[in-house]
Amino acid sequence: MPKIALIGAGSYYFAKAIISDILSYPELRDSTISLMDIAQEPLDLITTFGQKLVKQHGFKTHIESTIDRQEALKGADYVIVAIRVGGLEATLADQETVAKYGISEGVGDTLGPSGVFHGLRHVPVMLDICRDMEELCPDAWLINYANPMAIICWALNEYTHIKNVGLCHSVQHTSAELLRYLGVPIKTVDLPEGADPYYQIFQNQEHEELKDLTYWVAGINHMDWFLEFKWEGEDAYPLLKDRFKDPAVYSGPDAHWGGPDDVRIEILKAFGYFVSEGSPHMSDYVPYFRKRPELIKKFNLPAGTARASIRQMRMEQYAEFKQQVKSNHEFPIIRGVDYGITVIHSLETGTPSRINGNVRNNNLVTNLPAGCCVEVPCLVDREGIHPCYVGDLPPQLAALNRTNINVQEMAVRGIVEKDKTKIFQSILLDPLTSAILTIDETRRMVDELFQVGAEYLKGYK
Fold first, then answer.
1. CA gap 358, 363 in Å, rounded
2. Which terminus of the chain has fewer Cβ atoms in its 10 Å neighbourhood, N or C?
């Protein structure tokens, strides 16, 4: 049975879901799960959880744990990476610096000044992981969950020989949200304690709702487009647009996980298609919603302090999880919405599946640049991951994607070449930054970001 290495296992919120996903497949319950993190205390906690889960359910899964990355990678068949270099503190330091220059970022881990500097910290570590894999497990698949997804995957495709795919859950989550917007009732019967009824349904093939929903989504990570969205075989876009005539449908505090969803509806009205990532993210990638305080208020967007509130929430959840692990709490096996273990199951068993994956654009989306990172439907079986041909996106959508791809390309070049000028130029090309700052102001901000992140950004010239 396979060895599955999880790099960044101390990220308990993600790691516990991955372990549960593995155990939800009977064919994977004899696997070895090798948990690795540089922080011993959270690694020990998730290791205890994994061992407890296996014991509670009587499985034969072998859970091992190490702070030695090479030990975890040795002989691995699959390597799942979910790291955050510098932790949330480094992200917050970037955002606080950027905010001084009048840019209020919603999330700041994908594009824009904070997203690019997120890439500066992560790409070198990801390339180091691949170099270790080339020596210790050269035939393994790398499954990346770290952001900035497109920048990382572009670098991996360009500068390593490791088979890889980048996975996100925005397409699955958005399809569930679109069902809610349509007013479709979701069955919640027979779900384990703690399961999200809106997301769990997509992993349960017996539910009628899944059989009635089809979609075709392509673009780039966090800016995918629902090119087709059908309910019971019929185009659901007319019904969606009719529902969105009432702002109460999308402007409420619980419309989306990030709160009101005004930005995505505005994008739909202007460009004709629904985008995969929620309003707090999407508002970072375009120049329309965050360039003035009154616009941030108008579109019900969270301020830059959102990250601090997320940190507080995660701390509370971590404390609760820690207490559960120490107690006699019975943990259910819950299969989540993420694609990672679905991919492994298909590669191991040959059971076909379809995912949306981040891959190299080898003539898949024909009006986006060759070699960039696109997120497209992919078929998975024992022979591998097979990206699907999409062809041309509607030109207005490709144009929006290209504004982000420009930033990604310059960022990748700048990171690999350790070139401060290229990093500066990548941020000059950012749609939101260029709507707010002059060239000189951008230069000063970039210089300050390099100073703030100096611990992680050595060797740049």
1. 14
2. C
Residue 39, both tokens? 């922080």
Q: Distances from the Cα of 263 to the Cαs of 259, 260, 357, in angstroms?
A: 11, 8, 24
Mean pLDDT of 9-31: 92
What is the amino acid identity at position 450? F
CATH code of the domain in which 109 resides: 3.40.50.720
Whether pLDDT at 191 is above 60: no
The pLDDT confidence band at residue 167, using thresholds 50, 70 and 90, is: very high
Q: Is 368 left (phi over 0), alpha (psi -120 to 50) or beta?
A: beta
Is the residue at 450 inside a domain? no
Residue 444: CA count within 13 A, CB half-sphere: 7
- Residue 387 pLDDT > 50: yes
Tell me the residue range of the domain where 145 lies: 3-167
Average pLDDT over residues 99-104: 94
- What do you get for the CA distance between the two ends of the chain, in Å? 47
Query: Binning pLDDT at 50, 70 and 90, where does residue 185 land?
Result: low
Q: Is the dihedral of CA 373, 377, 380, 383 positive or negative?
A: negative
- pLDDT of res. 389: 98
Q: Which residues contact 419 (CB under 8 A, 6 or more apart)?
A: 413, 460, 461
Query: For 34-43, 173-182, 228-237, 360-369, which range has the lowest pLDDT when averaged over its residues?
Result: 173-182
Tokens 């120490």, residue?
A: 326
State the catalytic residues: 169
Strands 234-235 and 223-231: antiparallel
Q: Which of 191, 186, 267 is nearest to 231 (CA)?
A: 186
Q: Is residue 69 part of a domain?
A: yes
Q: Is 340 domain-assigned?
A: no
* pLDDT value of position 186: 55
Q: Please state, in angstroms and rounded to a whole number, the distance separating the CA atoms of residues 114 and 111.
A: 7
- The SS3 of residue 199 is helix
Q: How many domains does the chain have?
A: 1
Tokens (6 digits) for 234: 């019929």
Q: Is the pTM of the predicted complex or chain greater than 0.90?
A: yes
Residue-wise over 237-253: b if at least 16 C-beta within 10 A, else e? beebeebbeeeebbeee
Beta-carbon contacts of residue 90 (< 8 Å; ≥ 6 apart) = 121, 453, 456
Q: What φ, ψ does residue 76 adopt, rounded to 5°?
A: -70, 145
Q: CA 47, 52, 57 angle in degrees (round to 5)?
A: 135
Q: Are strands 141-144 and 32-36 parallel, antiparallel or unpaired?
A: unpaired
Is residue 130 situated within a structural domain?
A: yes
Phi and psi torsions of 389, nearest 5°: -70, 130
**Which DSSP symbol is given to 27?**
G
